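[retry 2/3] Streptomycin 6-kinase: previous attempt timed out, resubmitting with same input.
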Amino acid sequence: MTLDLEAVAGRLEPRFGKAAHRWAGALPQRLTELVAEWGITLGEQLKSGNSSVVFRCAGPQGEAVLKLSPDSYAVREEVDMLRQFASSGRVPAVLAAARGAVLLESIRPGTLVEKMAQPPTPADYAGFLTDLHAAGDPAAAPRQLTDWIDVLFNSAARRGADLTGSKRLRDDLFAVPTETVLLHGDLHLGNVLSGGARGLVAIDPMACAGDPCFDAVDYVLEGLDRAEMLRRRDELAAAAGIDVDRLDMWCRVTAPIGATYVGNPAHSAELAAFGRGEY
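[retry 2/3] Streptomycin 6-kinase: success.
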């Protein structure tokens, strides 16, 4: 396998600066070490974001995915949180872990939910959330939802989001005590895979402790129009046994954030209108 190390470094540089080039230069040797240590055979490099390099591979436990990152602390957190969620059966199993690297179970077929021709039903998604939230100890969370929302707000503000209403609703939500669970924290539909008969599987947690409604918002907001978002909100709340009013408020808190990310102008406008309380 031939690696384009300059391309790797260029993709990681926005996140890690010039250190990305040093890390990429050492990547072939690190891969050689892990192949020997874990008895794996590397396959194709998979598409990933600006914080990691991911490969398909095979090893003693079958098909797997190898993920490496310059941010060894983030990898350690991911390993710890996947192990917290493991009893749910809704995350990939951790097969091995080392500094800055993790070997994960391969999920098949592994289609991203955002790419599926037919999205999961609210009942299917409710079962997924219920299983996920029944696992893990919220006391083990590396952050609280209150802190994670501040991070999201700061990022969205830099992209020009109007968060006036979002901050008011956030304060209203946090003022009322509610159940606390270990949340995935970043459950957009690009982080949810189809696991075939196994059902939906979550990857790349940004785990935090907080209101279970928070993990439900992306499924609602990724409906492509107003009617679909409202249908998903109502049916998911009923199926998951969560408070529809709190779910609605969380959707309105986060809709302006989502409006700054989506590439579809019509969907962005609907999200902004949802956040402003226009429907």
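[retry 2/3] Streptomycin 6-kinase: The chain is about 45% helix and 15% strand.
[retry 2/3] clearing retry counter.
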